[in-house]
C-alpha cells in the first residue's frame, strides 16, 4: 500500500500550520487506498542547511539530524505539503528540509495545500519550482485557503466546507501519480 506523508511547512512555535496538516490528515484517513502519516518537520530539529554537496547525492550526511529525516522521506511514496506563505514564499525551515535531501525525493508525487493573505498561491508556485529539481512531480489540484476567511483571528483554523472536496481531488491525484511513479522507482532499483 502507498505511504503518503503530510508534511508541515512551518517550525514556528506559534504556527497554525499543524492545525491545517491535521485537518488534511483527518480527510485522508477516511480513505482506504493509501496510508497517511503526519510528518512534522519541527520534530526533526534540522539545523540550517550546511551539508556538503556530495552528502546530498551519497546519503553520507554529516549532520546527525539529517539521517532520520532521510529515512522518513525515503520510506514515503508521495507527499502533501501544507504551506504557510511568508513574504510570498515558503518558510526557511521547509526550504532547508527539502535541501538536505535529493535522492529520497526522486520520482515521487506531491500535492500542495497552502494558506495566506492571498491563499498562499505565491508560496505554492515557489514550492513547485523548488520540487522540480529533486524530481518531485506536483499535481495540478491545489488547495488555497485565506487567513481572512478560513481562520478565526488568523490563529484558529476553521476552513470553509467546500475545501474538503478539493482536498479529496488533490489526494486522488497524489495517489494516482504516486502509483505511477512507484513503478519507475522499482524499475530503477532493478537496473541498479
TrEMBL record:
Cross-referenced Gene3D superfamilies: 3.40.50.360
Domain (NADPH-dependent FMN reductase-like) ranges: 3-146
One GO cellular component term noted in the UniProt record for this chain: cytosol
Superkingdom, taxonomy of origin: Bacteria
UniProt GO molecular function: FMN binding; oxidoreductase activity
Subcellular location: Cytoplasm
Main location: cytoplasm
Keywords assigned: Cytoplasm, Flavoprotein, FMN, NAD, NADP, Oxidoreductase
InterPro entries found in the cross-reference section: Flavoprotein-like_sf (IPR029039), FMN_Rdtase-like_dom (IPR005025), NAD(P)H-dep_reductase (IPR050712)
Quaternary structure (record): Homodimer.
Family that this chain belongs to: Belongs to the azoreductase type 2 family.
PANTHER family (alphabetical): CHROMATE REDUCTASE, NAD(P)H-DEPENDENT FMN REDUCTASE LOT6
Identification of the protein by name: FMN reductase
Amino acid at each position: 500500500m502507498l505511504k503518503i506523508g503530510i508534511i508541515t511547512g512551518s517550525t514556528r512555535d506559534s504556527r497554525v500550520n499543524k492545525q491545517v496538516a491535521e485537518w488534511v490528515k483527518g480527510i485522508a484517513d477516511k480513505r482506504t487506498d493509501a496510508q497517511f502519516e503526519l510528518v512534522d518537520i519541527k520534530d526533526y530539529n534540522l539545523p540550517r542547511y550546511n551539508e556538503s554537496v556530495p552528502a546530498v547525492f551519497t546519503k553520507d550526511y554529516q549532520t546527525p539530524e539529517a539521517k532520520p529525516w532521510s529515512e522518513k522521506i525515503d520510506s514515503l511514496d508521495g507527499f502533501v505539503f501544507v504551506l504557510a506563505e511568508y513574504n510570498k514564499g515558503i518558510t526557511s525551515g521547509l526550504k532547508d528540509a527539502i535541501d538536505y535531501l535529493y535522492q529520497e525525493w526522486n520520482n515521487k508525487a506531491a500535492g500542495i495545500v497552502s494558506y495566506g493573505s492571498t491563499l498562499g498561491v505565491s508560496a505554492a508556485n515557489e514550492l513547485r519550482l523548488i520540487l522540480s529539481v529533486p524530481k518531485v512531480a506536483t499535481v495540478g489540484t491545489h488547495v488555497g485557503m485565506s487567513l481572512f476567511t478560513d481562520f478565526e483571528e488568523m490563529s484558529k483554523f476553521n476552513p470553509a466546507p467546500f475545501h474538503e472536496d478539493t482536498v479529496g481531488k488533490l489526494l486522488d491525484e497524489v495517489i494516482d501519480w504516486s502509483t505511477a511513479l512507484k513503478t519507475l522507482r522499482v524499475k530503477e532499483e532493478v537496473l541498479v
